[in-house]
# Entry
Amino acid sequence: MSNSSADVASALPARGAGSGSVPPPAIAAARARFSSLQGDFVFLDAPGGTQTPDEVAAAVAAVYRESSGNTGAPYATSRRLEALVDEARAASARFLGCTFDEIIFGANMTSLNFTLSRTLGRQLSPGDEIVVTRLDHDANVAPWLDLASDRDLVVRHADVHGDTRLDLADLEGQLGPRTKVVAFPWAANSTGTIVDARAICDLAHRAGALAWVDAVQYAAHEPMDVQAIEADVVTCSAYKFCGPHLGIAFGRRGLLESWKPYKARPVSFEPVGHRFETGTLPYELLGGLLATYAYLDSLGGMAELADWERQLGERMLAGLPDGTQLYGLPGMVGRVPTFLINFEGVSSAQLSEELAERGFGVWSHGSYYALGLHERIGWGEALRVGLAHYNTMEEMDRFNEILAALVAKHRPTSSHESGPGALIASQHD
# Structure
């Protein structure tokens, strides 16, 4: 399939004015900015990492060509790197909704989370408590478990409802006078469920605890304002929103100033976020990050993209094959466009392989690193389908058509159908 803006728009099926079948012109034209989208393969694997526009790769290469070296020297290439770091920090602050000096860069979200949780651990005492949730990716659980093992802390797990919404009453019941951190995901990497981040931050603060947010999936699909939710720490990864493999964190200034960083001497203490950046920054990736933000802005920003992704998600959900078991919320309200599905009697691993052979990239996995939710819901192994703004309605329709054919091919003849278009949400309450 050709990917020029005209060809993409004309290839989409017309379904009436206002149906949302044709993407906004800027989004349709954006496909031409990705070399990886010029073939026929359909990427439905956004939760694992999005495709990257060519301009991001070009920006990375430009830093190598024009500014290779390091900061702190009295010549042009070094000064260009210093300006680049400042620009990347300022642009990231705008993206997250915080101030310039509250931004921290790292290798990835997981590395940042281990670093920052370990730094906080210097202030914790045996018997102090951390609350995590069953909705979390393990990158926001394992650091606390390791820290608890080292420092004799207690880790508690807040539960979820059967539809994967976080059980706020259970979370509140886990809080106590020794609670020091409430760690939670803004959106689940497995089922796409969004949580009420402000409500959880408020609960944490009323208990005298820090609100520690994994925004990896949320940042990829929705506009963020970390100050509006009154978070203390927020982490995300640029490669989930068409950027380079780079972690970004926000830390509330007053909190960061109270911590002693793990860092080689002599330590630079300004801007405050820089104290927690160990070693030389990946300057070339910061160049790519700046190009990523420019790309997203050129399409109208995250709010505009979120609206289009909701339309894509509604189209996909409406066309799923009969008997689809959908884990999580049944529609697009309260979720990002990440979907976990299964079919009775049909191997998701086999479906993933055969879908790839037919030009569709989706994952089959067990826990998807959401170990607590996997234990709670018990889906075994399931397909995860994740959409990005560069997907099209035509891709949704083709995917559902091929998926239905494969499911029919492999489904046991005795399998019970639930009726046309049925979505069976898991219930475990």
Remarks:
- Residues 35 and 54 are 6 Å apart (CA to CA).
- Residues 76-96 form the longest helix (21 residues).
